[in-house]
Amino acid sequence: MIPDGYLLSSEPEWLARFASGLPERATMIELGTYKGKSAYYLGKGIQQVNGTLITVDIHLDYMNSDKFIGDHYIRSCYSNNLLGTIIPIIGDFYEVRKFFNMPIDALFIDGLHEYENVKKDFEEWSPLIKVGGFVLFHDVHNGFPGIQRFVGDIAQLKNDWENAGGSNSIKCFKKLR
After folding, report:
1. Which residues fall within 8 angstroms of residue 64, CB to CB, at 6 or more apart?
2. pTM of the full predicted structure?
3. Which CATH number fits domain 11-175: 3.30.1340.30, 2.40.370.10, 3.40.50.150, 3.30.360.10?
4. Which residues, 6 or more positions from 12, have their beta carbon under 8 angstroms from its beta carbon?
5. Per-residue pLDDT tens digits for 20-50
């Protein structure tokens, strides 16, 4: 069963195709998993290259911050035969980052959507991306001006990041150096 979540029509297939195009035994981080829909598609894709998707989220329902929703996500990983391919970490992005220091092939940023949060996610986690690796941003549209603005900032860093496409509200950049 495919988990709930918010992806536009072409985004699920695009995410799976993107992840299946990563190098053999790739490592990807997803910041912000919610109920796991994007993780499902990334997991299905990265499974094809024997890679690993590490998801980081506090798994509280953003509509009701007292409600823990991580149990549904873990069950979904298990029932879809993705545990092992997907390694769920339940925790705060910045606390987890203190203990995480291995190079990664791709980073998917889909946490809090205000400019300062997106900027901090990028600044904290993007140094782990290998040269030739990718950063993806979700929800890049008028409904989330903070994300739009930050993605515009990244697009100006032409010596460091190259536009690598995307789908609908997903924008992807390749790390050049």
Report:
1. none
2. 0.94
3. 3.40.50.150
4. 37, 38, 41
5. 999 999 999 999 998 889 999 999 999 999 9
